[in-house]
Structures are given as C-alpha cells and as structure tokens.
Amino acid sequence: MREGRVVPVVGERAHRRQAWAARTALVAAAAALLLPLVEGGVGGLVLLAAGLAGLAVTFAALWWTLSRRGALRMAAAALALLTPVGVVALFAQANLLWVVVLSALLWSAAVWSGRYALRTTGLRSTRGIKEYRTPAPRRPFLLLNPRSGGGKVERFALREKAERLGAHVVLLDPEQQQDVVALARAAVADGADLLGVGGGDGTQALVAAVAAEHDLPFMVIAAGTRNHFAMDLGLDRDDPAACLDALTDGVEVRVDLCFAGGRPFVNNASFGVYGAVVQSPGYRDDKVGTALQLLPDLLSRQRGPRLTVRAGRTTFTDPQAVLVSNNPYRLDDPFGFGRRTRLDSGRLGVLAVKVDSAVDAAELLLDPSGFATTTSHEVVITADASEVEAGLDGEALLLPTPVRCRIERRALRVRVPRVRPGIPDPPPRMDWRRLRKLAAAVGRTAVPARSRGEGRVHV
Fold it and tell me: For residue 326, how far is the Cα from the chain centroid?
C-alpha cells in the first residue's frame, strides 16, 4: 500500500520566491484597484458603477430569457446581448476601455502570484488517495459501448487493444436495449476477476455496483462524452486506450459508491429542473431546444413536484433544482468548478438552487457562493407527488418518493494505471492577510528541514 507523500517546502530560495510572489500579488492588486480612480477620477468611478449595474442587468435578462416565452423571451435575450455592448461603448467613448482591460490583467496577475505564494506555504500533498498494489487480473471482463463518446471505441481501437491484453470484451449492440447488470453478473458467475466499462457514466455506475457487491476491482475506460468519473480519478480523458494500461501495470484505489432509491451513481443524482429536462424524449437530440421549451414552466413551478430536501440537520424547502453528489464538488474556484478533490470522504455533497426572481438570479450569478450547500452521510428527498423525475449520472429515471440517497465509503475498488495524469491540486483560497505576512518577511530564511525533523518523506 502506498499513501500520499508529504513533502515540506523549505529552503531560503523557495522562501524568497514565496515572499516576492506575495509582494507582486499585493502590488498588482493595488494597481488594479487604483488605476480606474487615477485615470478616470470621479467619472471613472461612475463608469465603474455603471459597468457593475450593466452586469447585474445582463444576468437578470438571462433569467428572463430562460423563464419566459415568446416576445418577452426575445426582448430579454436582446437586452442580455445589448447591455454589455452598451457598457463597452461607454468606456470606449470616455477613452477608458484600456483602463478596464489593464485592470483586469493586473487583477489576474495578482490572483496568480498570490496563489503561487500560498501554494508553496507549509506542507502539501503530492497524491491525495491511497494506492494499493494488487496482482494483475487474469480474467478481466469489459463492456464497451461503440456509440459512446461519438465512436471512441472504434476510433481508439479499444476492443483490439483490450483483447491483446487478455480481456474478454463484449460490444454492446446499439440497436437493442441490453441489461448491462445481467451481463456483468453473468461474467462474475463465469469467473471474471475484474469488471470494466468503456461508456457513459450511467453505465459505469451500474456495473460498478456489481463489482462492489462481489468485492471485485472495477476499471474505468474514458470512452464516454464527458467522463466526469474518469476525470476525478485522474485518468487520461484524451486517450481512452491509456486506461487499458491498468490491466498490466495498474494499482487499486478505493472510492465511495452512492445510491439513490437503490439505484447506484458514481457522480451525482439531479432532481427538479434537470431531472425533468432529461426525461423529455427530445433531450438527446436537441438539448438546448428541449431545455428552452421546458424551463419556463419548471422555473416558475407551474410544472413538477415541490421538493423538500433533508440532509442531516439541514432542510432545503421548495428548491427548483437539487444536486446530490458522490463527495462534494468544488464551488470556490471557476477553473475547478465541477471537480471533486476527493472521492473517498464518505460524505454526500448537496447543492440546492432556489431562484424566484431576476434579482435572485443576478445575485446568484454574481456570487456563486450563494448556492445553498451542505454535506451529509444521507439525504432524503420528499415531494408532493408519489414519484420524482431524476437524472442519475445523466440517465433519466422516475423514482418513488421519498428518495433516500446514501453513500458507502470506499466500497468500490477501482483499478487505474500506475502512470496517469492524476488530479491537479486545488488552488489555495486567496488569503490577503497571509500574503501581507509573507510579503513582510524581509531577510528571514526558512528553518532547515533537518532541524525541524521535516527532512523525512512519509511513504
């Protein structure tokens, strides 16, 4: 078994880089804030306020575009397009457009430098999940969906490579509905010692539950469209064939497996707006058109049940959309939005959205931290209907209420390639107080690792 190594960041050179990065962040942030005032004076502040107001109007117009139909929708869409154009024209007329662009670049530099300084502070983990060395499977069984991901199975010759590596491969027939659970159970009865899937996350979840039930390793082949589960496992999504390296040179990790009303999911279960949209027969062929057709009634609550979500001691009443995830998603960083830093915490992530007006929509888009969130070992969703529409890993289902969502910690053994891209470390939160302390550390040097007992690497 191998655990994540803990590596101390010490040394005078690293300390100096850290201090200078902190100073650069503070100077760039101050310049970004002062530049509009120095160049534009009071007029510049007025234009800045107009820009913020225009941003709020744009977000409100987007809400009206989604929640209205007919002429009102067209007018709202035009407002959402024209408002940013008008704001840019105002800044250009005042000859301050360059100030806005330069301020944005300075602020980006401040955030990048600040995160660099904070990232090199203290100890940091180079691997976030335990790996287990186990023997290579002797009778691996793989299910491949030739239609998934726009034909990745054929494009990357996944069947041929898997069979060369000794796997028994079954290609799913796109012309008929096949029971992948039954196929997986039959393979286990026939002596398979590993189950794997090359397809969408919904299929991955169904077969993963069979693997967990029999305590067999499961293998993910990133042959789907989005491959969210593969992404959070650190697999190579650009080359699905690289996932097959796990058959001969792999390690195991243990991750959580979740269930909603007895149905497994590896990513998330959606209720409310998204759960209703994916039920539509036209969703697969025209996602945008179907959503625009259904959203007005769903957002105004003229269609769909009224939901109540109970997660531990927290209750969310009447949200339009609910997302229950296998471990919480990151919401604090736009570049890491939609990723999970862990898959083995044993906690369900819960995100509830309740928007009743254009003002609520603008506030939520301006400050994504306004989402109602929590974590829990169990989540119960009730409704004023006997069934609720749900999307489990993108698959449309009708589930009887109440729906009980639960998580089984580290119940799933996943075999992954020993060499893989991995999961990027989440960026640290901007801590300006800490940056001021780092910037003020003039002339100090880091204490040698050996004098603090930090010269060891834990394996």
Answer: 11
- Encoding tokens for residue 191? 């002596």
Backbone angles phi, psi at 120, to 5 degrees: -95, 20
Place of tokens 């159970």: 185
SS3 207: helix
pLDDT at 447 over 70: no
343: its two tokens: 């898959």
Q: Provide the whole-model pTM.
A: 0.80
8 Å CB contact between 367 and 311: no
* Residue 363 to residue 365: CA distance in whole angstroms: 6
- Tell me how far apart the alpha carbons of residues 370 and 374 are, in angstroms, rounded to a whole number: 12
CA distance 58 to 334: 19
- Largest separation between any pair of C-alpha atoms in the chain: 78
d(CA 420, CA 182) in angstroms, rounded, equals 31
Which tokens belong to 87?
Answer: 């704001």
> E strand or H helix at 324, and its extent?
strand 321-326
Q: Are 60 and 359 in contact (CB under 8 A)?
A: yes
Q: Between β-strands 140-144 and 194-198, what pairing exists: parallel, antiparallel or unpaired? A: parallel
Our CA angle for 127, 129, 135, nearest 5°, is: 105
Mean pLDDT in the chain?
A: 85
Lowest mean pLDDT among 23-32, 325-334, 398-407: 325-334
- What integer pLDDT is reported at residue 455 of this predicted model? 38
Task: Determine the pLDDT at residue 122.
Answer: 43
Residues written for the chain: 459
Let me know if 281 is exposed, middle or buried by CB neighbors in 10 A (0-12, 13-18, 19+). exposed
- Kindly write down the DSSP assignment for every residue of 352-389, as one continuous string: EE---SHHHHHHHHH-GGGSEEEEESEEEEEESSSEEE
What residue has token string 């012309």?
175
CB atoms within 10 A of CB 249: 10
Give the pLDDT confidence score for residue 457 in this predicted structure. Answer: 36
Alpha-carbon distance of 297 to 254, in angstroms, equals: 42
